[in-house]
Amino acid sequence: MEHLDWPFFDDKHRELASALDAWCVPHLAHVDHSDIDAACKGLVKALGEGGWLKHAIAGTALGGSAEVIDTRAICLLRETLARYDGLADFAFAMQGLGSGAISLAGTPEQRQRYLPRVARGEALAAFALSEPHAGSDVAALRCEAFDDGDSYVLDGDKTWISNGGIADFYVVFARTGEQPGSRGISAFIVDADTPGLEIAERIEVMAPHPLATLHFRGCRVPKSQRIGAAGEGFKIAMRTLDVFRTSVAAAALGFGRRALQEGLDQAKTRPMFGAHLADLPLAQAKLADMACKIDSAALLVYRAAWLRDQGKPITKEAAMAKLVATESAQSVIDSALQLFGGRGVRMGEVLESLYREIRPLRIYEGASEVQQLIIGRELLK
Ligand SMILES: Cc1cc2nc3c(=O)[nH]c(=O)nc-3n(C[C@H](O)[C@H](O)[C@H](O)COP(=O)(O)OP(=O)(O)OC[C@H]3O[C@@H](n4cnc5c(N)ncnc54)[C@H](O)[C@@H]3O)c2cc1C
Predict the structure, then answer these.
(1) Residue of 314, 313, 317 lying closest to 325 (CA atoms)
(2) Residues catalogued as catalytic
(3) Rounded to whole angstroms, how far apart are CA atoms 140 and 123?
(4) pLDDT of 57-111, one tens digit each?
(5) If DSSP codes are grouped into helix, strand and coil, which group holds residue 69?
(6) Using a 6 Å cutoff on CB, does residue 135 contact ligand 1?
(7) What is residue 81's DSSP assignment?
(8) Are the CB atoms for 163 and 124 separated by under 8 Å?
(9) 22, 121, 215, 235: which has the fewest Cβ within 10 Å?
(10) What angle do CA 66, 70, 73 make, to 5 degrees?
(11) Is the CB–ligand 1 distance for residue 156 below 6 Å?
(12) For ligand 1, is residue 369 a contact (CB within 6 Å)?
């Protein structure tokens, strides 16, 4: 926790991180992951009761901790949760990402209807942007929303939707056709029980999380459920991702920190060649590399978060943080697993689970190659 002394933070951030760390010990030590949906719902409820979800929404009158989402706070929260339990980090992140468009661009009625329940952990949120043919190239999305009097009718498919199947509402991005490409997309809040919204398939992944493909077939939503102006949906999606991209990097940092700690403990206690693993120079070099990667990632994460909280644009800085933190965490976890030898690959071991947990972070909310592209473009501007 020595990085909390860095000048990026205010005292309120230091207190927040320490308080969450203390909360995690009793609340996350024994999360039962055997039923992933039940575990996720339980974690959202616990995070709401603990007061942590207040940081995932904007608006103090609605139960939020601040008028705008504090990037350093959500990064510290995700880093800490990820150190203890990947699913707890996921549960927190989805409440923020799933309701982010409402926090940023919702009407007062939409904000009042959804955000207080999100902050209390009483309503689960989801963000439905990706489609089978539109992942990295998200502006190619095909799901359509036809204007039909005082409502829109949604038709199309969404896939890889986190919280799919357990969410109470989905923020869905669909083509309304004001202009071609990214300028003809709008955002909608679709309640989970809306006729025409079907959970078509649950998707099983290497690090189990609730995930699904959704079908919209003649799914009618009132115009009052549109977020922002017609045709503004792509911008709203990008603004939402802008808030949360740095926090993905923070989660990766948390996974990496846990791996470094596990690696250090293992090296100090594993007897080898008449001494301990930690006495061997090659093991020390490995630990040194891991620590350098962690600190480099942390500096990039909190630089981006601090800049954003100063109101500065962070396109390049957030991309750097996500790229370096996720790639570094994968490497740190791999090195830590190596220090564990055979035990590292045994099912149920902490390193085995971290090894699976980190992998999707290099893909979602912009794959590493997309981050490289963003950084390159920004440098060449
Ligand atoms: C666990 C998980 C949870 C997810 N949750 C959500 C969610 O809640 N909501 C949601 O809307 N989506 C979600 N996604 C979808 C995620 O955002 C997409 O998987 C991601 O955008 C990549 O899209 P794709 O899978 O279609 O891969 P593709 O777009 O087909 O990309 C495949 C690969 O191509 C490479 N690539 C991409 N662009 C370039 C480039 N410019 N140059 C060179 N190479 C490139 C990258 O290596 C990339 O991994 C989730 C995905 C996962 C795995």
Answers:
(1) 317
(2) 365
(3) 30
(4) 999 999 999 999 999 999 999 999 999 999 999 999 999 999 999 999 999 999 9
(5) coil
(6) yes
(7) H
(8) yes
(9) 22
(10) 110
(11) no
(12) yes
CA–CA distance, 232 with 210 (Å, rounded to integer) = 29
The whole model's pTM is what?
Answer: 0.97
> How close is the Cα of 142 to the center of ligand 1, in Å?
16
Burial class (CB in 10 A: 0-12, 13-18, 19+), 276: middle
HSE of 112 in the Cβ direction (CA atoms, 13 Å)? 3
- Give the closest residue to 184 by CA, choosing from 215, 140, 148, 219: 140
Burial (0-12, 13-18, 19+ Cβ within 10 Å), 115? buried
Cα(244)–Cα(343) distance, integer angstroms: 34
How many whole angstroms from 174 Cα to the centroid of ligand 1?
A: 18
Q: Write down the residue that tokens 């004001």 correspond to.
A: 178
Cα–Cα dist 62/275, whole Å: 58
- Which pairs with CB-CB distance under 8 Å and at least 24 residues apart come from 196-202? 196/153, 196/154, 196/220, 197/154, 197/170, 199/164, 199/165, 200/157, 202/164, 202/165
